[in-house]
Each structure stands twice: as structure tokens, then as C-alpha cells.
TrEMBL record:
Keywords: DNA-binding, Plasmid, Transcription, Transcription regulation. Pfam families: MarR_2 (PF12802). GO terms for biological process: response to stress. Signal peptide: none annotated. One of its GO terms (molecular function) is DNA binding. SUPFAM superfamilies: Winged helix' DNA-binding domain (SSF46785). This is HTH marR-type domain-containing protein. It comes from Fulvitalea axinellae. It comes from the Bacteria. InterPro entries: HTH_MarR-typ, MarR/SlyA-like, Tscrpt_reg_MarR-type_CS, WH-like_DNA-bd_sf, WH_DNA-bd_sf.
Length: 158
């Protein structure tokens, strides 16, 4: 196997994710990041999470998460509610409309991949993780966030 085979495999992954993202955007008006936020809320006790948990989950900065949450809140899929313990902070909560939307959305590629990865042995998962970290390191993209889109102030060249 040479480096071109690896690059072609990466391109296949990127292309399939891009096509799925465009399909979800067209059919449901949601980005993959928005859908992942909703899915995370659905899987949490009480359908709740925090801004910080979502930042860590999606590897996105605070302002990007704020934008995602603002759009979801505007459409009625989430609500920001006061935290019972610390009134200064807010919890993010999935609404009935958000639950209904998730019931209508297909099992996206991310979810299918996560299900299949969860079925791998710990050794295999570790091998996949290590391999991806090697690729990330080779591409010199360690500090890059997993933003769902490029912004005008973001340089395209590494």
C-alpha cells in the first residue's frame, strides 16, 4: 500500500460525509453539527447538556457552539433553562419539537459509524484511534477544531 491509497481512502470518507451533510441540510434544514447536538441531548438523562459538554463533544469553540444553539433555539428544537444548582449558568434542553425532529431524521452516517465502532474490540478501536492520530499529525492539524464550516476569517492554507 502506498500513500496514494491512503489519500484516496481519506477522500472517500470526506466525500461520503459531505454528501450526507448536504442531504441532511436539504431534507431537514440542519447541519450535521446541529443534528449531533440534538442527538447528544436525546441520549442524556433529562434530555439536558451544557454548553461546555457540547464544545468538548464536537471539538468546536464556544462561539461556534453558541451559533449552533442559537439556530436550534430559534427553530424551537432546544431551550436554554436555568441550572437548578447554579442560577448563573444555563442547561441546554431538548424540546418536544426537537424529539419529534429526531424521530423523523434518518440514522445518519455518523450514527451508523458510531454503532459499528462501538462493536469493535477495544484493541481494534485503539488501533483505529492511533491510526487517525497519526494521519492528523502527518497533516499537521492537531490544533484544528472540527468546525462544520469554514468562516471567512479562517485561512484555507495550513
Amino acid at each position: 500500500m502506498d500513500s496514494l491509497d491512503i489519500i484516496v481512502s481519506i477522500r472517500k470518507i470526506v466525500r461520503s460525509l459531505n454528501l450526507e451533510s448536504k442531504s441532511i441540510q436539504k431534507d431537514f434544514g440542519l447541519s450535521i453539527a446541529q443534528l449531533l447536538c440534538l442527538g447528544h441531548l436525546q441520549s442524556n438523562p433529562g434530555y439536558r447538556s451544557t454548553h461546555k459538554e457540547l464544545m468538548n463533544l464536537l471539538s468546536l469553540n464556544s462561539s461556534t457552539i453558541s451559533g449552533i444553539l442559537n439556530r436550534l433555539e430559534k427553530r424551537g428544537y432546544i431551550a436554554r433553562v436555568s441550572n437548578e444548582v447554579d442560577r448563573r449558568s444555563k442547561s441546554i434542553m431538548l424540546t418536544a419539537s426537537g424529539i419529534k425532529l429526531l424521530e423523523e431524521t434518518p440514522n445518519v452516517l455518523h450514527d451508523r459509524l458510531a454503532d459499528r465502532l462501538d462493536k469493535l474490540s477495544e484493541d481494534d478501536k485503539s488501533m483505529v484511534d492511533k491510526s487517525l492520530k497519526i494521519i492528523i499529525s502527518a497533516m499537521e492539524i492537531k490544533g484544528m477544531e472540527a468546525s462544520p464550516l469554514l468562516t471567512p476569517e479562517e485561512p484555507i492554507d495550513p
